[in-house]
Amino acid sequence: MTSTAHLQRDTPELFERVRALTLDLAEPLSDADATVQSMDDASPAKWHLAHTTWFFETFVLRDVPDYRVFDDRYAYLFNSYYEAEGPRHARPRRGMLTRPSLDEVRAYRAHVDAAVGEAWPYLGDAARALVELGCHHEQQHQELLLTDVLHLFAQNPLKPAVWTRSTLRLTPTPFASSAVEKRISTALDTNGAQWGEFEGGVVEVGHAAPRFSFDCEGPRHSVLLQPYALATRLVSNADWSAFIADGGYRDPRWWLSDGWAWVQRDGIEAPLYWIGEGKGFGLDGMQPLDPDAPVTHLSFFEADAYASWAGARLPTEAEWEHAAAGLDANQGQFLDTAGAVRPSDHGMFGSVWEWTGSAYRPYPGFRPAAGAVGEYNGKFMSGQFVLKGGSCATPRGHVRASYRNFFYPHQRWQFTGLRLARDL
């Protein structure tokens, strides 16, 4: 899962930084804000704070001599899906946990943080690798905390803002680098976007570097790509408005059968959080939609329908990863500090997670990590689709070209969007 060479040097600083940011993200929330659960797919902010702490207590500290468990009952409350760790509180009922309080959860975090700091000099490489895994796990929950709070606040008729709107404007990040053979087509599509063209062939994908990765990112392996092109920018709010104006949500020609059934059943007419009159709801409250910004909060069904309407398709995850090879994955619109986020950049990394047309399945030769942490990715390789690149709510430094996010095709409460692909 990771090389151990850098653990002594990097991990204590990473642990401190990650744990502090999680608290900063929750700082504006009241106990009530942090307790309520808006849907089964989301978790209360308080639960995120406690679960990420339970991870360190369970997988690192319980093997430390003389460590005192903060509260024996928390193992049942804050286990997520680890069958090897025993029974747990039902996911749809996490919002019923009015106790422990938010302050008690903060005290739990402080207790575990201090214990990890004291134990670090005495931990072996395997335990230190679990601390690093726990940091990356918590970064995933930082993004989930933001998107779950956004979904929660969207249910409130007052449409409250968590933070005031940021005035940060970004310098656009590059689409591709010289590390990949490509050419930028001079022809523009009907929306004015250029296309990066790739020759294809046998290419290598999957994680191979000595630094950290999740087990599902490997092994590195060869795939055969046919010549293809990727749009140099993401689909924008203006593009999506044209899709709606052309009756995109009312025309079954563009939709997969399951997607059309979803549209009809749930009355879908626009991306999640589009409120009407050119406005959208976000962590900064109700704001005008920027027509040039990437459209977000789309399901796979919507992304696939738009691609069909546009005479294109979604890229495969191998195409996307090949196109991103050689780029600096830390460049782009990512989460650096606590605050409201809205996508605005069109680079390959950050801004919005990009749906691919690839099912989330194991790579050739995949083996789950040993022990209970082996339940982290492998057992979810059914019925979900891969997303690439990270989002404006993803902590900077968390993703890489090989990173595989995954969601079910109807889910759209994450910062999800799309980049078009086509065959050459």
Question: How would you explain this protein's 3D organization?
Answer:
The model is unreliable at 167-171 and 177-181 (pLDDT under 50). The chain is globular. It is an alpha+beta fold and 424 residues long. It is 31% helix and 12% strand. The longest helix is centred in the N-terminal third of the chain and has 30 residues, at 125-154. Helix 3 (45-59) runs parallel beside helix 5 (102-119). It contains ten helices and 13 strands. Strands 1-2-5-13 form a four-stranded antiparallel β-sheet, with helices on one face.
Could you give the topology of this structure?
Layout: H1 7-26, H2 31-35, H3 45-59, H4 74-78, H5 102-119, H6 125-154, E1 182-184, E2 195-198, E3 201-205, E4 221-225, E5 228-231, H7 237-245, H8 257-266, E6 274-276, E7 279-282, E8 285-288, H9 300-309, H10 317-324, E9 353-359, E10 385-388, E11 405-407, E12 416-417, E13 421-423
Parallel strand pairs: 9-12
Antiparallel strand pairs: 1-2, 2-5, 3-4, 5-13, 6-7, 7-8, 9-10, 10-11
Helix pairs in contact: 1-6, 3-5, 3-6, 8-9
What is the helix content?
25-40%
Low-confidence stretches: 167-171, 177-181
Mean pLDDT, all residues = 92
Structural class: alpha+beta
H/E order of the elements? Answer: HHHHHHEEEEEHHEEEHHEEEEE
State the distance separating the first and last CA atoms: 36 Å
Portion in beta strands: 5-15%
Q: What global shape is seen?
A: globular
What Rg, in angstroms, do the CA atoms define?
22 Å
Number of helical segments?
A: 10
Q: Enumerate the strands of the largest sheet in spatial order, edge to edge or round the barrel.
A: 1-2-5-13
What does the largest sheet look like?
Answer: 4 strands, antiparallel
Got a strand count? 13
